[in-house]
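name: query_chain
kind: protein
chains: 1
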Amino acid sequence: MTEIVALVDYGAGNLHSVHNALKAVGANVIVTADAQAVRAADRIVLPGVGAFRACRDGLKNVPGMIDAMRERVEVGGAPFLGICVGMQLLADRGLEFGSHKGLGWIPGEVRRISPSDSAVKVPHMGWNDVALVPHARGHQVLDQGEAYFLHSYHFAVENPKHIAALTDHGEGLVAAVARDNVLGVQFHPEKSQRYGLELLEGFLAWTP
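structure:
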């Protein structure tokens, strides 16, 4: 039986482009705001565009969705991919327009990018390198490459072991996080052409 990939719909944007990219690499993907559908899925993708608080509130407002994700991912071991703010929501908290609680799956907090060089612009927007850290080389999904970024806040990860890749924008910023069956990327695979499609293909084949 073909695996089902649940693309979580919680009003956080970029669903259409992520859906199209997953379909392009052969995923049997459903776009859903149904907690029961997420519990039944084989793999889960959490997209996200915009402010941390708005995305967190959107996710909280979908009945049973956070519990369903925890049960399927944290307990059931389903492979999980968070994209952009979908990755940031893995943190303990986000500091955009106040302090707001995240999912707490990967310890750390989401802070505004504050480069010391005034010539470095915020938001971090456009193409940039994704450089794997040494302990993440050989990861089944991630690889070195160039991806498309668009963000003003970054994930300050508490445990370096959870950092999978970095990018440089006036300072080293976390480009990807990984722990067990959980993977998050700050960049947009759906906008990253061949590199992004290869990452999504890798996610479909991932056996953490």
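note: The chain has one domain: 5-205.
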